[in-house]
Amino acid sequence: MGLIEQYVSCYPFSRNKMDEPQAVSLKELTEVLCCSERNTKLVLRKMQERGWIAWQPGKGRGHKSQIIFYKKLIDLLQQQAIEWIEQGQLNRAIKLLDNPSLTGRTADDLRRFLTEQFGLHTEHAHPYPQDVIRIPFGRELSALDPLQASVTTEAHFSRQIFDSLVRFNLKTCHFEPHIAHSWICSPDQKQWTFYLRKGVRFHHGRELTAVDVLFTFHRIQAESSPCAWYFENLIGMEKNGRYAVTLTFSKPMGFLMHLLSSLHAAILPSDIGFQQNHMSGTGPFKLVQKSEDSLILERFEGYFREQALIDRIAVYRTDIKSDHVSFYPADHGGSYYGEETSHHYFSRLSGCRYLAFNFNKSGAQLDFYFRQAFRIICDRSKLIQELKGDREEPADSFFRKTSRKSSVTSLPLAKAGSLLEKSGYHGEMMQLFCFDQKGSIEDAEWLRRRAETVGLNLKIHPFAMTQFFDRGIDRSADLLLCGEIFEEDLELGFVSLLRDKTVFLRRFLNQDQRKVLDHLANRLMLCTDWAVRRKVIDETEDYIRRNLFILFNYHAGSASTFSKELAGIEMNAYGWADFSKLWIRPPDVSVFPIHV
Which pTM does this prediction carry? Predict the structure, then answer.
């Protein structure tokens, strides 16, 4: 506890009267400061030296001491908060709100003051003014390892730090050079050579070479890797000099460009690999700080492509909502505001929310009648109608266009009761897991109430995003509410859904079911014709839907708020703006249409 926090704890003894002596015992102060009498005296002496208080010890038994408060609490808090913000420690100022002694109007005033610190700001405590975007976010960010990126928000931030060999252009649906400036493949698509740009540097200063590409690909190949399937047909990998890499496969790999454009294949430095607190990529932003409460990225001046125009992105874990800048992807459960000073964006996210049944655990969920009953209980249209929020439209597929072709019907709950009787379910408690985000918990509670009406008992277990990779969930859950948001390359997103070891759909299927999906995924990757690939995707979804491996629930959206001074806003598939494209337009500059 710092001195300012200790002042907050003592402040109730002021009785909101400045410059007037108040009676208080040393024992009372010791209790609120949670320290010894000796340390309490040291704290009081420091406060006196700063001119915050005057302290007069009581003389004789029964005589209380006297304390005078000179600093109004909100003024002192704001002054201290400004100092911390200038030092890049806004998260420390936010923690002041957690002090139980801070209540009433003072707490409200401090929250209002801190809210104003989010959004766009220019910091002057540097050799030159820096443009900074401070973003409030409602949960702790999990690991940003590109190979493990399975949560949309983490994947977005990882994209700012790391780069892949090639990039997928959503507008043209073509692959474009990035770290690799060119590539060639054999007529049978079994051998590929990639030529690397010279002068591409990692954030720690070293030039990227073929050795780093081979290191990254060996890491992907590892048995523990969730993406080992990327290279399961790889039979040779070698560097051709400093700036070229050749890959040789046992089968045609027309799908390789999709795989190498993914975040999972982002190139890491061979000398340090991935280190959670010392990440080094080649992306437009470099990591400055990552903790449970904050993530700070700075513009990388050595970036090999067009440099970012925002100097720093600072994300802080807090329940504070800002009218000036906020991102609320589907996994956050936020809402946006109506200020005239802000732009509002609503993105229709790819993929969908769904409910998965665990086929690796004994229980009623293995029975097809039970899953049919749950399909009726989990009425997509009613769920959307009653809960609203970011729930846009019923899903019958991971793809919106396919869902819109389907006829989603509602059946009476009595039918679910009849199916439960056939299933052999006897009233046992079923374990329903969900993310500890507002929207997911709302869905779970809605399902629990619906299930209860037909005698199906559900116990809800919310878990944090940081527990995403916890295999204990796989052993404990009977059912799980989750979702999948595809990146810009939808085909890659769908194949990853089937093959990636971290995805709950795959984690909850048994070995035989996985083999079928592996076969379908491999067929899809070998197809060279889009129409044929589309048929394989439809066949795969029909297999999942027909067997009720999961229940498609709904397609969601995400809301974002930006100050009108912010320009260059390009929303990505994850419901976030690409930070590297953002720039600040001075508030006094008007925008006029151009007539040709």
Answer: 0.85
